[in-house]
């Protein structure tokens, strides 16, 4: 690319609150993150919004598209029938090297399918995985869980690849020196679980490119003992949505239980910094979205209900993935892992 500035394509038409909330979050990101934004969508609507809010940022470009993939549509059919849909155009911008990443709060299945069709997979990765960052009981520490929805059915080698990709992200983006990987299971013992869990445990234990810490039970996910948790997308999606619900319930309980009246207002004012930190740790909107691991380009899938703050954080997440060269590092780590397994097999055959 001619410019060294990060350019992020934002699907302005995807999501329950599109396009206004998406545009608002993107404009804020352009102003605060020192990046360029390519707003993909209905050009007339986007221009009208900018004029209405008296905004004309120089680092925001409008890229016209036609149509959007709705939640009711089958992704592949809709993507082929609507080649100029916003998610297709956004992915093409990355494919053409006009953008470094895509952010979308639209149909997650369509985003994943468009990424696979337009960008392809990283060599050596069989299936993409959606990775979500969750807070833990340890202040300042998070855990990344993958897959949380891309693959309902998995093979052991898929989960092994998820562990490698999660390790890369934890190490280079979350600054964990030696990320500890856990396999989500119903017990700590290696023999526990179904056939997928038992066979995956064997693969992870033998892989020298990761620091495998054994099985992680459900209660271990948010304790902070592990840095990376791997599971199939069926279990992971249930886990993610349950964790999000916990955060929403706890925030609501805090609102209801804070004292009322003048004393309550004074107390709340004094506690405001603490309450803000609690919200940041528990509110899924603070994370913005999840990275689609395994595709050959940075793609962030945001919540369908995302509002401007969540979109801002999703764009920040994309920018961090670019700055830390996540795609390049996954490619390198995966090749290293394959090399070590080949060497190990060769030595075993010679003996």
Can you offer a commentary on this structure?
The structure is a single chain. With 351 residues, the protein is of the alpha/beta class. The chain folds into two domains: 1-124 and 294-324, Isopropylmalate Dehydrogenase; 126-290, Isopropylmalate Dehydrogenase. Helices cover 48% and strands 16% of the residues. It contains eleven helices and eleven strands. The protein has helices at 20-32, 43-52, 75-81, 86-95, 108-118, 156-172, 195-206, 233-257, 261-282, 308-323, 326-350, and strands at residues 7-11, 36-41, 60-64, 101-104, 129-135, 142-146, 180-184, 211-216, 228-230, 289-293, 298-302. The chain has an eleven-stranded mixed beta sheet with strand order 3-2-1-4-11-10-5-6-9-7-8, with helices on both faces. β1 (7-11), α1 (20-32) and β2 form a beta-alpha-beta unit. α3 (75-81) packs across α5 and α6 (156-172) crosses α11 (326-350). The longest helix is centred in the C-terminal third of the chain and has 25 residues, at 233-257. It starts with 6 loop residues before the first strand and ends with a helix.
Short summary:
By secondary structure, the protein is an alpha/beta fold. 48% of the residues lie in helices and 16% in strands. The protein contains 11 helices and 11 strands.
């Amino acid at each position: 690319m001619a410019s060294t500035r990060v350019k992020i394509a934002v699907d302005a038409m995807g999501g329950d609150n599109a396009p206004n909330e998406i545009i608002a979050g993107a404009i804020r990101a352009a102003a605060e993150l020192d990046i360029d934004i390519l707003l993909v969508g209905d050009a007339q609507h986007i221009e009208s919004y900018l004029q209405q809010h008296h905004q004309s940022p120089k680092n925001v470009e409008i890229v016209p598209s036609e149509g959007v993939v709705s939640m009711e549509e089958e992704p592949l059919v809709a993507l082929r029938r609507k080649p100029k849909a916003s998610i297709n155009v956004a992915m093409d911008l990355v494919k053409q090297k006009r953008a470094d990443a895509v952010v979308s709060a639209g149909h997650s299945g369509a985003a994943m399918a468009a990424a696979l069709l337009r960008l392809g997979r990283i060599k050596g990765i069989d299936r993409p995985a959606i990775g979500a960052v969750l807070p833990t009981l340890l202040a300042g520490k998070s855990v990344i869980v993958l897959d949380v929805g891309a693959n309902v059915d998995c093979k052991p080698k898929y989960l092994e690849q998820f562990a490698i990709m999660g390790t890369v992200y934890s190490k280079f983006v979350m600054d964990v020196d030696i990320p500890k990987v856990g396999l989500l299971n119903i017990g700590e013992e290696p023999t526990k679980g179904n056939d997928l869990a038992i066979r995956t445990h064997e693969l992870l234990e033998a892989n020298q490119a990761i620091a495998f810490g054994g099985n992680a039970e459900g209660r271990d996910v948010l304790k902070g003992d592990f840095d990376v948790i791997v599971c199939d997308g069926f279990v992971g999606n249930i886990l993610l949505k349950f964790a999000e619900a916990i955060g929403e319930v706890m925030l609501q309980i805090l609102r209801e239980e804070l004292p009322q009246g003048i004393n309550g207002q004074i107390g709340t004012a004094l506690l405001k910094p603490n309450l803000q930190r609690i919200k940041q740790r528990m509110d899924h909107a603070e994370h913005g979205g999840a990275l689609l691991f395994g595709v050959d380009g940075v793609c962030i899938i945001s919540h369908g209900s995302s509002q401007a703050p969540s979109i801002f954080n999703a764009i920040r997440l994309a920018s961090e993935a670019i700055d830390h060269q996540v795609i390049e590092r996954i490619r390198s780590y995966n090749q290293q892992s394959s090399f070590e397994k080949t060497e190990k097999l060769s030595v075993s055959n010679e003996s």
